[in-house]
Design a protein that fits this description.
The chain is mainly α. Helix content is 90%, strand content 0%.
């Protein structure tokens, strides 16, 4: 369990998820056009980063299973 906590890809994954939730909440609660456009752009880029981080995390997990 401690190894999973110290894995930087896991920390990066959950950080991006948290930032996406914050960005989506800013988009829904803000009435400012500039804040909305910036948070929507950030959400798009964060979703790409989340996808690639999850793919790298999955690849590491497969390598751990296949090569003990």
């Amino acid at each position: 369990m401690l190894n999973m906590i110290l894995n930087h890809k896991v920390i990066l994954f959950w950080s991006i998820v948290t930032l996406m939730v914050c960005s989506i909440s800013i988009t829904l609660l803000s009435h400012n056009t500039l804040a909305d456009s910036l948070s929507i752009s950030f959400t798009v880029f964060a979703s790409f980063a989340l996808f690639f981080t999850a793919a790298m995390w999955l690849e590491d997990r497969v390598h751990e299973i296949c090569n003990p």
